[in-house]
Specification:
Number of helices: 16
Strand content: 15-25%
Radius of gyration: 22 Å
Structural class: alpha/beta
Number of strands: 21
Shape: globular
Helix content: 25-40%
Distance between the termini: 41 Å
Strand order of the largest sheet: 8-7-9-6-10-11-12-13-14-15
Length: 476
Amino acid sequence: MALPNTHLGATYIQKLLDGDTPKKLFFDGIGGISMNALAHISHLRGHIVSGYDRTPSPLTKKLEDMGVKIYYTSESAHAADIDALIYTVALGDDNPEYCFAGEHHIPRISRADYLGYLMSGYEKRIGISGTHGKSTTTGMVSQILTTAAVQPTVFNGAEMKQCGSVDIIGKDEYFVFEACEYMDSFLDFCPTTAVVLNIELDHVDYFSSLAQIRESFGKFMAITGRGGYAVINGDDPDCLSAAEAYEGHKVTFGVENPSCDFYAADIRSEHGRNRFHICHKGEILCEVALQIPGRHTVSDAVAAFCACYVNGIAPDVIAKGLEEYRGISRRMDFMGQSASGADVYSDYAHHPTELTGTLAGAGEMEYNKMLVVFQPHTFSRTHELFDDFVKALSGSPLDELVLCPIYPARETNIYGISSEKLSEAITASGKPCHVIDTFAEAAAYCNTCTGKGDMILVMGAGDIIHTAEILTEENT
């Protein structure tokens, strides 16, 4: 079970870190994308940063090259001489550093609480929330503001290709961040603009119902106050429902929906990449040409437009930023060619709606064959959304599907669910599907049944990326 979030608040944390001397801050789980970024900015602010993670990675190496001490074994002694411990809720409650800090009354601050403190000093704080599309839209807003030369500070949940990093440390006016709803983490943030891309049932190990999720998103929007903005997907009834009590400036966006305040119109697909107009009350504000594939990215782009427009960026600058945007890692990310000559892509999609959108976009890219390797993510999600997964995968344009075993993340399998059960249901629907247990075997199979002009698409939020790496390394 995940650790709880703290709710100390920005004022308390500010007082804790005030003083003439740098504070010694220990980041428990420093190799995680968000934790790594928090450690980075803390180091730049002059604090003495150290941390723990299970394994070395390019992210931890980047910090080590800056002089940050990182441990790869977990021991209570690491927390013996620190002023505060910042932790990820993904840790177990038996983590030695976390336990030591609690026993010795060293302040413990959850990742979300600390991020809320960091952003509080910025004038314009744009939080991107939603069940899907957060990292892509955060990257879009980041690129727009970079194009506008306002030097934003950005905390994303995935590496942005335009800068090769998950974070950008800029000036103090704009702070852009991905706002994850899991464990209600986003309620510790303080946006002045809250973007809600979509609302669906997910994280079923925490949220018991869609009604509970809607309530949480409503609370997130309310944080902006009466002077703030809520940018809401007007095509999503659950987003509109969550925003009913919102008292600030409400702005809706949509795709080919003139009832929304801002909407995409005249959408044309060119090999899976879309060109369209963004309109307001029938007036064309700009034309956008995206360089990333997928119909679902059009909605993300209109959301990014709205978030930047209400924060003072001109439509032509926004359009230029969106055209310059090159995407983020593991979102239809071209990895190279396999030994068989097929083009290999990787994608992070792990929810049925994400799968539907990504596979539809991939189907428009005009490959001869689409072979998909998918790793379901968490037992609870696979169990609760089983029928939706079957529908999304069996109804997609993929030609053949390989399933790898479910990635457990923080869970144990109390549901009796398996990739074999999912495969049986998909096969019964008429779509070719089977299970392969290891990444090496999956890669080998892909090479036996693909060739030049084909696509191999590796999907999932766990460690399935290794399959794509094996496929492309074999051809280097």
